[in-house]
What does this fold into?
Amino acid sequence: MIKTAGILTWHYYQNFGSALQAYALQRALKRFGVKASIINYRNPKFGTVSFVKENIKHLLSVTAGQLPGKIGRHFTYSFISFQKTFLNQTRVVYAPIKLGALLKNSDAIICGSDQIWAPNVFNPVYMAGFTDSRKIRKISYAASIGLNELPEKTADEYKELLSDFKAISVREEAGQKLLVDNCGIDSTVVLDPTLLLDVSDYKKIQRKTRAKTKTFIFCYFLNVSHKYRQIVEKYAEEKNLDIIGVSAKKDDSGWMNIQNGIGPREFLYFIDKAHTVFTDSYHGTIFSLLYHKNFYTFERFSADDPICQNSRIYQLDKYFDIKSRIIVPKTALSEAMPVNYGEFEEKLLVLRKKSFDFLEEALK
It folds into this structure.
C-alpha cells in the first residue's frame, strides 16, 4: 500500500475551487493512511513569488482578525494564509527538471483534480511527464479535460504521456469518452475531491467575516462579460434580500456588495449563511449542494465556445438531477422545486464509495 504521495494539481491560483479541491484530496488520501504533499510547482510564465513577502502576508493574515474594521481587511491575505495553514506543500519549484527531487521519498504521484488536462492550457508537467513509472507510481484522480474536443496532435501527446499510468480517473464522462475515442485509453469517472468530504469537514474550517448584512443572496461569478444582473436583482427584490458576492466583472460593484480579499474559508461561510446562492461556477454549485442551499447556476459558456466547459455542470446534473437549477442564456428564472437533499445524500454516498474504491485499488 502506498504510504507517501505527491499531489500535482492547480492549488495556488486565487480560485476557491482550486484551493479547496487540493485540500479535499489531501484529506481524502489521509483516510487511507497516505501522507500526501502538494507539489508546489508554479509555472514561471505566471510570475514568481517572494518567500519573504508571502510569509509576512501570512503573518498579517493571522493577526488581521485582531485589527479594527478596514485596517484589518486591508491586511488580510486569505489565500496565502489558507495555503500555508491547510495545505501540506513542498518548497516552490519552477523548473520541471527539478520536480523529481521533490518526489524522491514518495511512493506515488497523483495528478488531479481540476482542469489540469485541458488541451487549451496543456502542460506535460500535469501528466507527470518529467519522470517515468520505473521511479514512481503514476495515478490520476478526477483530472479534467474540460473541453468538448481533443486536437489530434494533443491526443498523441496524451496517449504517450498516460501510457505508463497505473490508474487513470477523470472527473467527467465527456473526458472519459475523449480519452478512449482519441487515445485508446480507458479511465474511471470519479467525483471531484471536494465531494469526498462531508459538509461537517468544511464547517470546521470556514471562517466568519465582518460583512454586516441581513438575509442575503451570495453571488459567485467567474464570467467577466455576464448579464446576470437583472435576474438576480429581481429575485432579491421579490424576496427582500441583500446581494453580496464575489465577481470577476468589475462593474458588479455597482449593484452588489463585493467581498474583496476573502479566501476559501470565508467563501464557505458565505455559502453556509446565504438564503440563496447564484453562481456560474462548478465549485460554487458543488458547495451549494453540500451545504443544502437553495441555488441557481448560470450556464457560463455557449455551446459553440471553443473552450466550452459546461460538461462539468451537466455531469453534476447527471449525478444529482439539478437541471431545474441551471439557467441557460435568454431564459427567465422560474421558481424551481426545492432540491431533494435526502436523495442527494443517498446518491452522494454511492458515488463516494465508487470514488474511494478507485483510490483504494490504485494505492495498493
Summary: The radius of gyration is 20 Å. The longest helix spans residues 341-363.
